[in-house]
Write a structure and sequence with these properties.
The chain is α+β, with helices and mostly antiparallel strands. Helices cover 16% and strands 40% of the residues. It has helices at 23-33, 54-63, 90-98, 166-169, 253-261; strands at residues 9-14, 37-38, 47-52, 71-75, 103-114, 117-121, 124-129, 136-142, 145-152, 154-158, 181-187, 197-200, 205-209, 216-220, 223-228, 233-247. The strands form three sheets. The protein has a six-stranded antiparallel sheet with strand order 6-5-16-13-8-9, with no helix packed on it. Strands 12-11-10-7-14-15 form a six-stranded antiparallel sheet, with no helix packed on it. The chain has a four-stranded parallel sheet with strand order 2-1-3-4, with helices on both faces.
């Protein structure tokens, strides 16, 4: 967790699928009153305001990896688990944020290595059957120790950030913000012994496509990055890069969890 300070430069990021109305103009008005200069390049800002849903937040966090620029979200999506600000409270809350009343939290990310390429995920890495309705067999290991082969529709490896998304809908564990770990969850496993597993930093999850006639698809934060042909393997681990999420002081992980999942 990083200490915050008053903001002098900020950037606004949006995504076209959301109905934002006059939200951008409202942010500009707040910035003008707070004497905050808005810049076009997010990496040149001290803080980025993301207008949209969790998808907008994830894309922005990923684009700003390594920049040290925190991202605060105004929720115009359906769930908005990563956002701190409601649209109706935009003026009040952004005035506070620009005064320095926010908390910046470092979030772990994943790296997947395959075919000599590397990709970083803020949310999750998914290895799934490339043919809808066809089961695959995934051989997996953690820290070099063989854990067998699981017939299934796929595997999810998630960060704490992504644990409340696809992972949760498949019965995986919720990882509380602040944990430096990843979770492994199988999708529709044809086994009574395939259980979700939480893996700490320092151990690598290796997954090999043990299916003789079906390729797998590797997704990073929902986007296809590669095929995993029969016999090929991928390595997934917590990497050094971290995303930087800004929240209001009272918007804790548990307050968002309660609002999102307990109602």
């Amino acid at each position: 967790m990083q200490r915050s300070r008053p903001v002098s430069t900020a950037a606004v990021v949006t995504h076209g699928r959301h109905e934002l109305g006059d939200a951008v103009d409202r942010v500009r008005a707040v910035a003008e009153r707070a004497d905050v200069r808005l810049v076009d390049e997010p990496r040149e800002a001290e803080l980025v305001v993301a207008l949209g849903g969790d998808g907008t937040m994830l894309r922005t966090l990923a684009e700003l990896l390594g920049s040290g620029v925190p991202v605060i979200g105004v929720n115009f999506g359906r769930v908005g688990f990563l956002a701190s600000v409601a649209p109706d409270d935009l003026e009040r809350d952004l005035e506070r944020v620009f005064r320095g009343e926010y908390v910046a939290v470092e979030l772990p990310t994943l790296q997947v290595s395959l075919n000599g390429d590397r990709h970083v995920a803020v949310n999750d890495v998914v290895v799934t059957s490339s043919i809808l309705g066809r089961m695959v067999e995934l051989a997996w290991a953690v820290g070099g120790e063989d854990l067998g082969t699981v017939p299934c529709d796929g595997m999810i490896v998630t960060t704490p950030t992504g644990s409340t998304a696809y992972n949760l809908s498949n019965g995986g564990p919720v990882l509380v913000r602040g944990l430096d770990a990843m979770a492994v969850t199988f999708i529709a496993p044809h086994s009574l012994h395939a259980r979700p597993l939480v893996v700490p930093r320092g151990l690598t999850v290796t997954v090999r496509n043990a299916t003789p006639d079906v390729a797998c698809t590797v997704l990073v934060d929902g986007h296809k990055v590669a095929d995993l042909d029969p016999g090929m393997e991928a390595s997934i681990y917590l990497c050094e890069q971290r995303s930087l999420l800004a929240t209001l002081p009272e918007t804790t992980f548990f307050s968002r969890y309660r609002e999102t999942f307990s109602s």
